[in-house]
Specification:
Chain A is mainly α and 591 residues long. In chain A, a hairpin with a 2-residue loop joins strand 1 and strand 2. Chain B has one domain: Cytochrome c oxidase, subunit III, four-helix bundle (Four Helix Bundle (Hemerythrin (Met), subunit A), Up-down Bundle). Chain B contains seven helices and no strands. Classes of the chains: A mainly alpha (591), B mainly alpha (235).
Chain lengths: 591, 235
């Protein structure tokens, strides 16, 4: 403790005036539906994301039923299977993970954690949610459109994405998908502006950047990345929409379909891949960085220990964010490229493992000799570390060109990215919900249901994805609805596929327990009190729980310390809230 | 993808410079107390709206840099045939420059609290922008009349697409300009508030002018020569 507040006696200037003019809702409609309160918007975002995510979950069951027991279910035709994988992937990556981390947790946590009353532009924030909802509805509408949703694969590679042979290619499916993505990006940009500018401008007195919880750092960096990366998807979608609807040839080469020469000519499918992955790779970290941030806070709080290497954690987040923009072509090794490019992208890909590894070490070192409480959020946080390391290690294999080329388009890749950006972030989402649910509702989630949910999900996820690596290694390609008479396949693969499918169904049903818990605890959960985890960060110090619109009552909090003062020697308790001036008296306020 | 990478390098470089000035080298576990925060926060004194506009312009810049990247990559294919440049684009460029100048005048007038002058400059800028948009539509019609439809050649496609997206951004700006005009005519609005609105509009217009000049250079086909020159210098 150096330099103990030399100017403590000086009056602290009052909080800025404009927040007193904060819009306050008048009616039921403006309180719960067209609300401008970031916390309500967060819940709206999360609810919508979870609802559409459930659709994607059901789609994954259907896929697993087909893969595990091919031919048993007559309604799962190859076309339907392609539609399932496409919609499952797109929904999970964009409409669930991105929306939930940034729109959900970002909206709820940023203003509370930095001590703001709300986002800086509440109206734009509200608009962001409604455009997101519209995007989700347009996407969902494609299930009911003639021809069904698109079956182009979640990467939507042209030329097949807009040809007649692909489900939805020459009907409504692909159009609705592209329009939905464009809407999503517009909506996200509105929200993203808010998240980024609130962190830059909305922090309360004393909340320097280096006192922010890592959750805010993660969400902030991910938001900035998303703001810069989503335009690439936007450009790709608009140009493909032109190709599909107006007959341009941005991406479409000259083609003969069913013996008929199409009017397209000269276009470049590779151009689409570049644009798509220029968005697609940062997207991985857009999902991962908030997870990194949140898990740091969960571990620190539930191990009652300050985060190890806070500065390194912050720098690692920022450096991962910057590096992730120059690795995109490692998704395109099999598309063919100059060997020097392959070498360059393999190198950058492996370099990104360095800051990531720093983070993993720091989490482990935070746990080291900590007072580990195996609460449900902590269990999920630990599961995240293990899963992320597992998924990250296979990433090191796949980052190398010579290893990637034979493994590309096998189930090994599917297992890799599900581990690293499917299971791992979802673990954090669950942990975060168990952690912050008491703040959102004032009640604890039921513990035994949480533990049941955790163990089934954790063990089940490994039962699904560990064997899948093996299945991929022996050569089972991804995106094949069934293997047919493939001689190279060994019998264990069939058994493993059936096993994976059963595990997937079990894990899926465990999520129903979780959803039931969410609803049940709302009414019957134990009263939580304002700070059940005895955490330091500002969101736990609100005068009322759940916090009302405006968050802070009459006066915004003053921050005296960083967010990780756990188990400080000599302190009266094993945690010191950020707004606690201990060992000094609070500064007096100007009259 | 070089255009977007150059753009991102600038943005990321700026972000790192900004972070560096936010005391990211400090060790928060060794300090406590409000001393680092006084007088209020380390939040910049800049109006929030200006910061937000800067972030938004970075997004818009990223969008157009990506279009430019796609343009360059597609240009290398054999079927590329640029349409003739409509002459009217020169006139449009001059008009958009005029709009930008008018907004600069508006900023100046607003800073000097000259309400009448501000109104005049805002109206001029608005009208000039409308003329610009009409000119862009005329350019489209001219191209279409010459048989250079959207789907004939990718170069045509890019022409309509990029001018269209730029035009949409201008239209969005006009909405903001309209709201600023309402403020300019409302005598209850404080001079400071009006000044902020005018400054934001001016910044947006200058940026879109800059983007337009870039798009114009691309569409006129000079960009290829420029690249060749760069390559020559580099090699």
């Amino acid at each position: 403790m150096v330099d103990a507040t030399p100017r403590m006696e000086r009056d602290i200037p009052p909080a800025e005036v404009p927040e007193l003019e904060l819009y306050h809702p008048k009616s039921w409609w403006t309180t719960y539906v067209f609300s401008q309160d970031a916390k309500v918007i967060a819940i709206q975002y999360s609810g919508t994301a979870v609802a559409i995510g459930l659709v994607a979950l059901v789609l994954s069951w259907l896929m697993r039923l087909q893969l595990g027991f091919p031919g048993t279910f007559s309604f799962i035709t190859p076309e339907a299977y392609y539609q399932f994988i496409t919609m499952h992937g797109m929904i999970m990556v964009i409409y669930l993970l991105t929306a939930l981390f940034l729109g959900g947790f970002g909206n709820y946590l940023i203003p509370l954690m930095v001590g703001a009353r709300d986002m800086v532009f509440p109206y734009v924030n509200m608009l962001s949610f409604w455009i997101y909802l519209l995007a989700v509805l347009v996407l969902a509408a494609s299930f009911f459109a003639p021809g069904g949703p698109t079956g182009a694969g979640w990467t939507l590679y042209p030329p097949q994405a807009i040809l007649g042979g692909t489900p939805g290619g020459q009907s409504w499916g692909i159009i609705l998908m592209l329009v939905s993505l464009i809407l999503f990006i517009i909506g996200f940009t509105m929200g993203g502006l808010n998240y980024a500018v609130t962190v830059i401008q909305g922090r309360t007195r004393g909340m320097t950047l280096m006192r922010m919880p890592l959750t805010v750092w993660g969400i902030f960096t991910a938001t900035v990345m998303a703001l810069l990366a989503f335009p690439a998807l936007f450009v790709a979608c608009v140009m493909m929409l032109f190709d599909r609807v107006l007959g341009t040839s941005f991406f479409m080469p000259a083609l003969v379909e069913m013996g008929e020469q199409l009017s397209y000519g000269g276009g470049s499918p590779i151009l689409f891949q570049h644009l798509f992955w220029f968005f697609g790779h940062p997207e991985v970290y857009i999902v991962a960085l908030p997870a990194f941030g949140i898990v740091s806070d969960l571990i620190s709080t539930h191990a009652r220990k300050n985060i190890f290497g806070y500065r390194m954690m912050v720098w690692a987040i920022v450096i991962i964010g910057a590096l992730s923009f120059i690795v995109w072509a490692h998704h395109m090794y099999v598309s063919g490229m100059h060997p020097w490019f392959g070498f360059f992208f393999a190198t950058t890909t492996l370099i990104i493992a360095v800051p990531t590894a720093i983070k993993v070490y720091n989490w482990v070192l935070t746990l080291w000799r900590g007072d580990i409480h195996l609460t449900v959020p902590m269990l999920f946080a630990l599961a995240f570390i293990v899963t992320f390391v597992n998924g990250g290690l296979t990433g090191l294999f796949l980052g190398n060109v010579v290893v990637d080329v034979p493994l590309s388009d096998t189930m090994f890749v599917v297992a890799h990215f599900h581990m690293v950006m499917g299971v791992a972030p979802i673990m954090v989402i669950f942990g975060a919900i168990y952690h912050w649910y008491p703040k959102i509702t004032g009640r604890m989630l039921e513990d035994w249901m949480g533990k049941f949910h955790f163990w089934v999900t954790f063990v089940g996820a490994y039962a699904i994805f560990f064997p899948m690596h093996y299945v991929g290694l022996v050569g089972v390609p991804r995106r094949y609805p069934e293997m047919g008479e493939a001689a190279f396949m060994t019998a264990p693969v069939d058994n493993l596929n059936a096993f994976i499918s059963v595990a997937a169904l079990v894990v899926g049903f465990a999520q129903m327990v979780f959803l039931f818990n969410l609803v049940w605890s709302l009414r019957f959960g134990k009263e939580a009190g304002p700070n059940p985890w005895r955490a330091t960060s500002l969101e736990w110090q609100t005068p009322t729980t759940p916090p009302p619109h405006g968050n802070w009552g009459d006066e915004r909090p003053v921050v005296y310390r960083w967010a990780y003062d756990y188990s400080v020697p000599g302190a009266p308790e094993d945690f010191i809230p950020q707004n606690d001036p201990w060992p000094d008296k609070p500064a007096t306020r100007a009259a | 993808m070089s255009v977007i990478l150059v753009f991102l390098t600038v943005v990321i470089g700026f972000s790192f410079w900004w972070l560096f000035h936010q005391k990211v080298m400090e060790k928060p576990w060794l300090e406590h107390g409000v001393h680092t925060a006084l007088p209020e926060t380390d939040v910049s004194g800049m109006p929030t709206a200006k910061v937000a506009l800067a972030v938004f312009l970075a997004v818009v810049g990223s969008l157009f840099a990506l279009f430019a990247s796609a343009y360059f990559m597609r240009m290398d294919y054999a079927d590329w045939q640029a349409p003739p440049l409509p002459r009217i684009l020169w006139v449009n460029t001059v008009i958009l420059i005029l709009a930008s100048i008018a907004l600069s005048c508006a900023v100046r007038a607003a800073r000097e609290h000259r309400r009448e002058m501000t109104r005049l400059a805002l109206v001029t800028a608005g009208l000039a922008t409308f003329v610009f948009l009409a000119g862009q539509v005329t350019a489209w019609r001219e191209l279409a009349a010459g048989g250079h439809y959207l789907d004939v050649n990718p170069a045509n496609g890019f022409f309509y697409l990029m001018t269209g997206v730029h035009g949409l951004h201008i239209l969005g700006g006009l909405v903001a300009l309209g709201r600023t005009m309402v403020k300019a005519w409302d005598d209850d609005v404080a001079a400071e508030q009006l000044r902020l609105g005018v400054e934001l509009c001016a910044a947006y217009w200058h940026f879109l002018l800059f983007v337009w000049l870039g798009v114009f250079v691309l569409l006129a086909g000079w960009a290829g020569d420029l690249l060749a020159l760069c390559r020559q210098i580099l090699t």
